[in-house]
Amino acid sequence: MRLSATGELLVRGRNVMRGYWRDEAATRAAIDGEGYLHTGDLAEMVEGRIRITGRAKDVLVMTSGEKLSPSEVESAILRDPAFLQVMLVGDGRPFPVLLAVSDLADAKQLLRRANARLAGLPRWAKVREVVLEREPWSTGNGLLTPTQKLKRPRLLERYRAQIDAAYSADRKDQV
């Protein structure tokens, strides 16, 4: 087991598959030349143990080149009971913006609370704006899967105007 330069968990050994049945291209995409299976999981080593922090495909790459695992940031923020549901936005953008479902009326208070939960993360993980929503995301409104996972593309589509406003020209100078 080892971590790639991007933090992806790589594994090899007798317990790991040799490849996909009759699919050389898929095998080459999953297993590198040294025989390591690319799991797609982002991980870190903590006291000699593997800690999964997210999925490689779920990484946000900001215009600065900095990378964030939205699941790690979202999990940290959701530890605050003021947040019912959250989704981090920032791929191809200069800074992170948080979509949040909350009963609190003040987005600035939510911003402070979110960033307090992110104190142990890199500085570029700091949220600059909160797009506040009152209506919970559900399978009924098409924003969650039946297993209660976020439908990120649908959420981005639904809140496009609010997200674009959070990144408006007058706010970009704050970066």
CATH topology of the largest domain: GMP Synthetase, Chain A, domain 3
Number of DSSP strand runs: 9
Class by SSE composition: alpha+beta
What's the main sheet like?
A: 4 strands, antiparallel
Helical percentage = 25-40%
C-alpha Rg (nearest Å): 19 Å
Describe the SSE topology.
Blueprint: E1 2-3, E2 8-11, H1 24-30, E3 37-46, E4 49-55, E5 60-61, E6 67-68, H2 70-77, E7 83-89, E8 97-102, H3 107-117, E9 129-133, H4 152-158, H5 160-166, H6 169-172
Parallel strand pairs: 8-9
Antiparallel strand pairs: 1-2, 2-3, 3-4, 5-6, 7-8
Key terms for this structure?
4-stranded antiparallel β-sheet, Luciferase, domain 3, 175 residues, alpha+beta, 2 domains, 26% strand, GMP Synthetase, Chain A, domain 3, 25% helix, 3-stranded mixed β-sheet
Explain this structure.
- The chain has 2 domains: about 1-55, Luciferase, Domain 3 (Luciferase, domain 3), CATH 2.30.38; about 60-170, GMP Synthetase, Chain A, domain 3 (2-Layer Sandwich).
- It has 6 helices and 9 strands; from the N terminus they run ββαββββαββαβααα.
- The protein has helices at about 25-30, 70-75, 105-115, 150-160, 160-165, 170; strands spanning about 1-5, 10, 35-45, 50-55, 60, 65-70, 85-90, 95-100, 130-135.
- It has a 4-stranded antiparallel sheet with strand order 1-2-3-4. The chain has a 3-stranded mixed sheet with strand order 7-8-9, with helices on both faces. Strands 5-6 form a two-stranded antiparallel ribbon.
